[in-house]
Structures are given as C-alpha cells and as structure tokens.
Design a protein that fits this description.
Distance between the termini: 70 Å
Largest sheet: 4 strands, antiparallel
Number of strands: 30
Strand order of the largest sheet: 3-30-29-28
Oligomer: single chain
Length: about 475
C-alpha cells in the first residue's frame, strides 16, 4: 500500500490511522508513534534476514563427495537419507569401454548404424563370442568376438584362436531382414524377414494363410521360447501374434478372429517378451499402443488378455522379474508396470465370472474393458520421440537399463528408481549416423557380469564392468 506521511496502514482493518504521540496515545494502541516505529524496525530486520539468506543460498554448494555414487550414498545414509539405487549407481560408474570389432570388411561400410544385432556368448570351451548383424537389412553378417585376459575386444586377437575357417566373417542374403534372435535350448539362430518368412539353420517357416499376397503379412519381431517351454518362438507380425511350436507348424495365437474390430489391438506387434518364471505367459505390444498379456495355452477368448492401452506405440517390453515389466515407446515414454495390476476388469478367477465372460465374449471382443493403472516406476529423462527401431536392453541382475536416445546418445537408468545414472564411458557414446538401433547385454564365456554391446556405425563396441588396463587393478 502507498505510504502517507503521518499515517500508518492497518493490515487487519484495511484502513489508515493517524500516528499519535506516545505521550497521549494509549500504551497498547497500534497507532502510537513508538509502536509504529517498532514495527518499521522489525520489518527492516526481517527484510535484511531474507536478503542474507538469499545471498547465502547462492554461496552454498553441494559437496562433490556427496555427488559421488558410492561415497555420497554412504554419507547420505549417515544423515538418514536412504538412496535406493546406490548399488546400481556404483555399478554403472564402473562400466568402462572394452574395445570394438568391425562387423564387416571394407566392402560393406555403411552410412547408417547397425540395424539388427544378436550376440551369443554360449561357447565356454573356446571363450569366443559370436555376433550376427545386418547393416542394410539385406545381408546377414556373422563374426567371432575375440577378447583378451581383461575382456577387451580386438580383431587381431583372432590369430590366437583356432577358428573353423580362416575368414572370421560369413554372409547370408536375407531380403528385408527384420530381427535376429538366439534360441538357447536348441542353439538355433532365428532370422526373420518382413516378407513373412522365418529362417533358421533347420527350416524355413512362412506365416500361414490362404490365397494371400506376399505383401499381406510381415514379421516385425521374434521372442525365443523359454527353456521350460516347447515353444521355439513367438512371432510378432503386422496382423497379430503367431506361435511356433517345436512339434508343429506356426499357428495364429492372437487375435483368434481377424474379422472383428478386436484385431485392431494387434495391428502391428513390435515388442514380445515371455514373463519371467512363467514360460506360458507372453507380453505383447505395438501399434496403436496396447499392452496385452497372452497365455499361449489358451486360444479361446482373447479379450481376457487385454490389459492396458498406453498413449503411444510400444517399441520394447522387458520382463524384470516375476511381477514387474518395463515398457518403452514413442513420445518419451518408459515405465515399469506391475502385471498383477494389469487385469481386464471383466476377467475373474471365479467360475461365475468365467461363465459370464464366455456368454458376453462377442460383446467384449468389440468393446474390451481396460484396467486403468499407473506405473510403479517412471523414467522422466528418457528421450525417444518418433523412432520405432531404437536400441534398449536390460541387465536384470544388476538392475540397470541401457537405452538409446533420439539424439544419438546412450544413457543408463536404474530399474529401481527410474533415475538416470552416471556412467562416464557410456555417456561418451555419440552416433553421427542417427539413433543407435542395436544394444544388447550378453554375458560372455567365463565372465561373471554381462557386457553391453553397442552397434555404432559399422562396428560393434563393448562396455563392461572392470578396469581399462590390468595394471590399473592395483
């Protein structure tokens, strides 16, 4: 309020009072000159205190020691502040660059990054890893991954191994190659094509259909079957999900009927994952953005498996444990959900509810009721706007996620908190050929921790927990 000489403004009564001499005014009156002067001094002192606090706030800085992942976490605990991802932060900080190997010789240098990648570390006898990759989705390359005693990768080390062939590379023409996966129980490399074919060393599988054109169906992704299952793999296509059983040809798993509006949920499947500890439970997602849970043993009612609709197409699904799954997609979305909460509100374990669902199956197929649940963990710093094909993988044992961003960088996150973790060597990854499309954690022979393989350019780069040189260990 405007100050008037000889008057003061009473905030409570919202009016001006004339200042009266303290000799004539009552002692307790607010308009006496002594009380007015006292309040003015108190206001000036309070303003001075606020100015000092504001200046001190700018001078105070958090100790660098407290910013350290391990030491800072220990001291924070002493002050009563518990950081849930101290172990994950310490592990991420200890990941170092361990060399690289070209995935193709000079004839096939590409102007883009590695499109698809599959690293296999199953040969414990020789200690050699094997990588399968494509640079242009037309040729499939394979190469050995030799490593020294410190786990560093270098092509010249192949001279120390008795490889089956003199040339460490092999090539296979695959038109419109869309995915590469390894089925551990049968030691089979599965390669899919968008033309609707799935190739392996043993057989060539086509999507079943009658009187279809070659462009009617395309395979987007493969999910190898678990060891405890007879399923070789689940196949995600532009029309739904197929199951390839070891004893029979691929069969449609979902949707059960393509003539219904319910098939829109399975229009494009980009992500498939079998749930941990549940070899018969399949998680699926894609466009338009439905996350669904499917029991591969049940082919009757699809609507019971629909669980949640997200705000954008799904690009990756990773099962973290028996109950938690990580889901990422476009529009910078990456979250962790609890599958126990992802239930169709029409489904129930009681026999009465099951009979009700069967009676209303046709209605539910056209109007599936989805449960609205919130994620248990969010990743606010994840950045992927428009890219369907973008790298992401999870190290479940150590609780970290390696995710490519749409600016050509790679970032590490904690699966416990969703926080971005500092990893100096991984934070230095830069791609000048667009987004990193291929990331994979793989435990190499005789190792205790997995190695992160990054397809940057035409090369395969390795990052693992340890030291750069053996002399640094002391």
């Amino acid at each position: 309020m405007r100050e008037i000489p000889g008057y003061f403004y009473d905030e409570e009564k919202k009016r001006y009072f004339k200042v009266e001499s303290s000799r004539t005014a009552p002692t307790t009156s607010s308009w006496s000159s002594d009380n007015v002067k006292k309040r003015r001094l108190e206001s000036q002192e309070a303003a001075a205190v606020l100015r000092r606090l504001s200046l001190d706030k700018g001078r105070l800085k958090r100790s660098r020691l407290m910013n350290d992942a391990l030491t800072g976490g220990v001291y924070a605990r002493e002050y009563g502040l518990v950081r849930r991802d101290v172990q994950e932060a310490g592990y991420a900080k200890g990941i170092v660059e361990k060399g690289m190997i070209p995935l193709a010789d000079a004839r096939w240098r590409s102007s883009t990054n590695v499109r698809q990648l599959c690293v296999i570390g199953a040969d414990t006898k020789t200690g050699l890893g094997v990588a399968y990759a494509t640079l242009d989705e037309l040729l499939l390359f394979s190469t050995y991954i030799p490593r020294d005693r410190n786990g560093r990768v270098h092509r010249q080390l192949l001279a120390n191994y008795n490889t089956p062939r003199g040339n460490p590379y092999s090539e296979l023409a695959v038109s419109q190659l869309s995915d590469i996966k390894f089925h551990k129980p049968s030691t089979t490399v599965l390669v899919s094509s968008r033309t609707g074919e799935l190739e392996s060393p043993f057989t060539n599988v086509r999507i079943p259909g009658h009187n279809r054109k070659i462009t009617d169906y395309q395979i987007n992704v493969i999910a190898p079957g678990p060891a405890a299952s007879s399923t070789v793999c689940a196949i995600g296509s532009n029309r739904g999900i197929l199951q390839w059983d070891a004893e029979r040809d691929p069969k449609w798993l979902a949707p059960s009927s393509h003539a219904t509006a319910y098939a829109e949920i399975y229009r494009d499947i980009f992500a498939l994952e079998f749930l941990n500890e549940h070899p018969s439970i399949l998680l699926a997602g894609g466009r338009p953005g439905h996350l669904s849970i499917k029991d591969v043993r049940d082919r009757n009612d699809d609507t019971r498996d629909v669980s949640k609709r997200l705000g954008s197409p799904i690009t990756h699904i990773k099962s973290l444990n028996e109950h938690h799954i990580l889901v990422s997609g476009l529009k910078n979305s990456m979250d962790v959900y609890d599958v126990r909460m992802l239930r169709n509100t029409n489904s129930s374990s009681s026999s009465t509810s099951r009979r009700s669902n069967n009676n209303n199956a046709r209605e539910n197929r056209h109007h599936p009721t989805l449960a609205h649940v919130l994620p248990v963990i969010q990743f606010p710093e994840y950045r992927n706007g428009p890219h369907i094909q973008i790298g992401l993988d999870v190290d479940k044992d150590n609780g970290i996620v390696a995710a490519a961003h749409d600016d050509g960088k790679v970032t590490v996150y904690s699966t416990k908190t969703g926080h971005r973790l500092k990893s100096p060597d991984i934070d230095q990854i830069r791609s000048h050929r667009g987004v990193i499309q291929s990331l994979q954690f793989e435990t190499m022979p005789r190792d205790n921790h997995p190695t992160l393989f990054v397809g940057n350019g035409s090369n395969l780069h390795a990052y693992s927990f340890g030291v750069r040189n053996m002399d640094d260990e002391a």
